[in-house]
Amino acid sequence: MQVLNENIQKKQFYTVYLLFGNEPFLRNSYKKQLKNAILGEDEMNYSHFEGKEVELSKVKDLADTLPFFAEKRVILIEESGLFKRSSEDWAEQIGSIPESTTIIFVESEVDKRNRLYKKVKEHGYVAELSKQSEAQLGRWVMAMLQKEQKKITKEALDLFLYKVGDDMENIKMELEKLLSYTIGEEGITTSMVQDICTERITNRIFEMTESISLGNEKKALNLYYDLLALKEPSMRILFLIARQMNQLLIVKNLLLAGERKESIASVVKVSPYIAGKLMAQAKSFEKEQLLEYVTLCVEAEEAVKTGGLAEKIAVEMVIVKIARRKKGY
């Protein structure tokens, strides 16, 4: 992204770009920034193609046409699929794009072995715009808050990212909502984040598994029924319970080995905030119990697949079995 930012700032552009990756917000942001930096409000020298039916002959004719009363022409090509199939004819043309034209390809997925991909990399610039790490997202949020002269505590920032997830578009919307509701306040606290920000379904699942771990059977079942009412499939919930038990088993082993929170967060690939919650949960289990409950989830899934149990009942049984462990039955 540094190269893209420098190109935009210095207004020095390649003749061809490929923006790809699994973060739509960044793909959309940089395609707009590049277009605006090259053309400004000029729409006369801008052409847009989308989908797999884009024709090379049309693009070539446009690329070879001098821009009208301007220095540059921009051709934007989105989700063409050209980088996932044989595109030899396109690859042959990449090296002959005139200096007066910039072609911007935007794709969600590419094959890096593709010849067109290699040609774009050779003659232009390829930017992989992937999901950002929690640390990167945290810095991004802090930068936006600084522009608004708004402070946030470390605990509130951790909670905010936990609640809203790693989708940058969603983060931006939730942050705008948070800023609107805290006008006049000097800083943002955990209670403000808790009251204002919308929680993802996956967080409700985490809350449910936390209730299971703490032996709160009633709350765990109520959360399970809430998730069903939100059309969350029973078998996905079972999968996430199994994943949670696996995570807790890993955390338990790390705790027994004397590892600290930062190290555990790195191994399990979660934020320190979530690592702290997992550590607290793991301490309430014996290692043998966690092994037993991982097996229990596998057996419940098998019972559903073979017709021995209905999905809803299978998950209920897993929840009750784990939550009641402290009661001895």
* Strand proportion: 5-15%
What order do the strands of the largest sheet run in, or round the barrel if closed?
Answer: 2-3-4-1-5
Task: List low-pLDDT spans.
Answer: none
For the termini, the CA-CA separation is 56 Å
Main sheet record:
5 strands, parallel
What is the overall shape?
elongated
Structural class: alpha/beta
The mean pLDDT is 91
Helix/strand order: HEHEHEHEHEHEHHEHHHHHHHH
Over the alpha carbons, how many angstroms does the gyration radius reach? 26 Å
Number of strands: 7
Task: Characterize the structure shown.
The protein is an alpha/beta fold. The chain has helices at 2-10, 24-39, 56-64, 88-94, 115-123, 134-147, 154-164, 168-181, 190-196, 201-213, 217-229, 234-256, 261-268, 272-282, 287-305, 311-323; strands at residues 16-20, 46-50, 73-78, 101-107, 125-128, 151-152, 187-188. The strands form two sheets. Strands 2-3-4-1-5 form a five-stranded parallel β-sheet, with helices on both faces. Helix 10 crosses helix 16 (311-323) and helix 12 (234-256) packs antiparallel against helix 15 (287-305). The radius of gyration is 26 Å and the shape is elongated. The model has no long low-confidence stretch (mean pLDDT 91).
